[in-house]
Amino acid sequence: MVHEGAEDPMAALGLPALSRVAICGGTHGNELSGVYLLRELQKSRQEEAPDSVALVTVMSNPRAVQQCRRYTETDLNRCFTDATLSSPISDRTPYEIVRAQELNALLGPKGSADAVDLVCDLHNTTANMGLCFISYSDCDWICLHICRHLQMPSTPVRYLHYNIPQSEAYSLESVGKHGFAMEIGPQPHGVIRADIMGIMAEGVRLMLDWVCRFNSGEQFKGDKMEVYTLVRNVDYPRDPATHSIIAAIHPQLQDRDFCLLHHGDPLFLHFSGKTECYPWAEPLYPFFVNEGAYYEKGIALSLAHKNTVGIPPICVQRD
Amino acid sequence: MVHEGAEDPMAALGLPALSRVAICGGTHGNELSGVYLLRELQKSRQEEAPDSVALVTVMSNPRAVQQCRRYTETDLNRCFTDATLSSPISDRTPYEIVRAQELNALLGPKGSADAVDLVCDLHNTTANMGLCFISYSDCDWICLHICRHLQMPSTPVRYLHYNIPQSEAYSLESVGKHGFAMEIGPQPHGVIRADIMGIMAEGVRLMLDWVCRFNSGEQFKGDKMEVYTLVRNVDYPRDPATHSIIAAIHPQLQDRDFCLLHHGDPLFLHFSGKTECYPWAEPLYPFFVNEGAYYEKGIALSLAHKNTVGIPPICVQRD
């Protein structure tokens, strides 16, 4: 059963089977590829149950989906820290905190042996990021191997790493034993583009394909992979008095996510006409460039450095 | 003062001066080019008052702007019919209806001699429409001449005509003696793109330039212009039971606004994989293709036919 020739199968790292996999959409209610792909999965999965995987499909924030908004009271995908998941609930608790605790009961509890083995949470961005895995670990071999398996001609596939401790990891995928957000753009929020939805459908298909092959005993060879690690977020220039933004992403940076920025490269075009440049000595890779949902979070773009990570050969652990 | 050589100045149609001009932004609070351009105009206009024009700048829906939403309770830009403008106000009247009546008092009253001479209402669309004038008349020579004046290398400029009686005209620009929406895309709602905002700034600059030249006595020669007239709107295919959409705009149609559609051309790609084609015999021009705000209105795209309209030479009416 060695399809992807691990030269020395004896060296493969044994990892537990991925028996329970959750695919979540609508964590942000106006990111429509995930919402509609999830509905399609829920229709089709009623007939064709996969052999080696118990698949759970979850519409994470049905109220926000119904209103076609990111969230109703607070951003659900910032509610999965240990602190928020254990906070007391009252009549005045925002809906999304109540819902996060429900999802944690369904898919977790986070950090416990009962948690699902893998969470894939479907997202869209207005930024030109192609397909990105976003994960809290750069040594989760399952996530890295799945990402490596998702090579497709229609879009670049990259792995983004947020270096945050698990207890403070704030997003839904942190509830699983393994997990990642599948972030695809560019697509305006509140809009479905067939091309972007097609990429997401193919990404989910390849992920499930990998999981089934892994569970069935296939060995996957080691490799080197590029991993982008978040260094810092950069806010828009703002008026100190009103806090209103006074510049847009520079046209030379717009749509150029993951194109390395050097000292002096244009970052912002002020409404006054002035260009503001990249002020740092260290070149870094921009991403989430002009993401619509991040204006309110004070993020115009994020910056990452790129590392090469060695990933070991892996196979399912024999009982 | 004949700059644009009207061959026979005696033939020019005399029209009243455009003494009071209103530029409005934020009629939809998440269409950000207009919101931020209006703020810039409000800053700069405090210093440089134009000679021949009394310019009014209006943030139409400040509550929606503050929340970065299209509207808070109902779509403001559907509230300017005679019926809604004269409806009684109570404690339960939606904010936008109250605001429409305020704006009508400020800029109108609609249809009266007191109304401002020209309303330019700034909008964005997620559709790839370039810059469009949208007007309720295909014989408003002022709007047509201004549109003709707005030729720019960075984007196509087109004139869209909605054939609706003035009393039922529902949008803000119908309050002025002349008026048009300046619609620019593609731009996601809730996002500012420097390129799109630059096109809008240039469009507003050229409009004010034309108005000042018109008021100062310049004659503008007659011409022929292409005018697109709305024929019908087309909804997404929907599940009859849930009303949920079951198809996206076909990738071959996406981003191809104003490319003539013929019988059999792809319109929709169903999530099931099926392609649904253009069913009509008459070829028509699509626009507002996949506009994000129109999902809730049941509009996937609109269809227009194209006419050539002769516009007469005009000049300001001498007192």
TrEMBL record, chains A, B:
GO cellular component: apical plasma membrane; cytosol
Domain AstE/AspA barrel-sandwich hybrid: start-end pairs: 224-305
Superkingdom as given in the UniProt entry: Eukaryota
Claim: Phosphoprotein is one of the keywords in the record: no
Entry annotation: catalytic residues: E183
HAMAP family tied to this protein: Aspartoacylase
Stated family: Belongs to the AspA/AstE family. Aspartoacylase subfamily.
Protein name in UniProt: N-acyl-aromatic-L-amino acid amidohydrolase
Originating species: Scleropages formosus (Asian bonytongue)
